[in-house]
Amino acid sequence: MWYHRLSHLHSRLQDLLKGGVIYPALPQPNFKSLLPLAVHWHHTASKSLTCAWQQHEDHFELKYANAVMRFDYVWLRDHCRSASCYNSKTHQRSLDTASVDLCIKPKTVRLDETTLFFTWPDGHVTKYDLNWLVKNSYEGQKQKVIQPRILWNAEIYQQAQVPSVDCQSFLETNEGLKKFLQNFLLYGIAFVENVPPTQEHTEKLAERISLIRETIYGRMWYFTSDFSRGDTAYTKLALDRHTDTTYFQEPCGIQVFHCLKHEGTGGRTLLVDGFYAAEQVLQKAPEEFELLSKVPLKHEYIEDVGECHNHMIGVGPVLNIYPWNKELYLIR
């Protein structure tokens, strides 16, 4: 059997070499049908920045300010800032999102200086400033500048010699407040000196920074080593490095501590830059960093002392990261 097949193949090859077998000519491929149509970009120059755009079947593509952005047509219609679609006084949408056709496409698109105009099938016109689109695009969010920080350990912070802010300057001048906020945003901690040792003055200082949140302890509270609450902070035991309010649904963003009175020895304050520690983990053990940022844990507080009966649970990973730019913003 194999002999007959080989013989047949041999005779076919001989016929091909002699030109004895004629095969029908194959049709020439239609390259126009195989290749996509040439992409047509609309180009214009605007205030020395080149702007180009293209309308696709399901989205609008924009090239501007060294960025290539893609906008869904539904998104463009839904985010219209016209008076009938958006209340500029309340900064809230008036348009019913559910009323937008999911297959909507603009009839025309034009550019005037730095403003794009979209005319929709019903005649409604939406206009967007190019810089607004850059700022609010997904691509723009990815390129958004991360809050500058100075990560520190004991040596770095001591060498920085970050100055404290005087209480009067902090409360009465914008420059004092600005100095405090700059220190806080850069280092995560900041100090105010010469604050009168009362809860009222501490509260006044805290309100200069932000609103004060209500908690299971109250808005403002004293604590000392009398075990009046079911928390180690109310004992004479040393507190090692830790994070507070991890059991809140949303942990505190800023905590204010003010030592009103100190008698005896001890009570030393230990401060650690958790963001510095997280960066060390990222550099030395990236797999562990990913684990800490993705696996949710249950953070729990149980209190049953005197008349205080609380059981709080907060769920979330130890390291909380913005998914679009991988910026660490919270540590539980």
From TrEMBL:
All residue ranges annotated as the Gamma-butyrobetaine hydroxylase-like N-terminal domain in the record: 54-133
EC number: 1.14.11.8
Highest taxon in the source lineage: Eukaryota
Cellular localization per UniProt: Mitochondrion matrix
Pathway the protein acts in: Amine and polyamine biosynthesis; carnitine biosynthesis
Cofactor(s) needed by this chain: Fe(2+); L-ascorbate
Domain TauD/TfdA-like: 161-312
GO molecular function, one term: trimethyllysine dioxygenase activity
Broad class of enzyme this protein falls into: oxidoreductase
Family annotation (Pfam families): GBBH-like_N (PF06155), TauD (PF02668)
Broad class of the protein's primary localization: mitochondrion
InterPro entries: AlphaKG_dependent_hydroxylases, GBBH-like_N, GBBH-like_N_sf, TauD-like_sf, TauD/TfdA-like, Trimethyllysine_dOase
One cellular component (GO) term of this entry: mitochondrion
Any Gene Ontology biological process: carnitine biosynthetic process
Coiled coil: none
Transmembrane segments annotated in the record for this chain: none
Keywords for the protein's UniProt record, in alphabetical order: Carnitine biosynthesis, Dioxygenase, Iron, Metal-binding, Mitochondrion, Oxidoreductase, Transit peptide
Swiss-Prot/TrEMBL catalytic activity: N(6),N(6),N(6)-trimethyl-L-lysine + 2-oxoglutarate + O2 = (3S)-3-hydroxy-N(6),N(6),N(6)-trimethyl-L-lysine + succinate + CO2
UniProt keyword annotation of Oxidoreductase present: yes
Record function comment: Converts trimethyllysine (TML) into hydroxytrimethyllysine (HTML).
Family from the record: Belongs to the gamma-BBH/TMLD family.
Subunit relationships: Homodimer.
Descriptive protein name: Trimethyllysine dioxygenase, mitochondrial
Organism placement in taxonomy: Eukaryota, Metazoa, Chordata, Craniata, Vertebrata
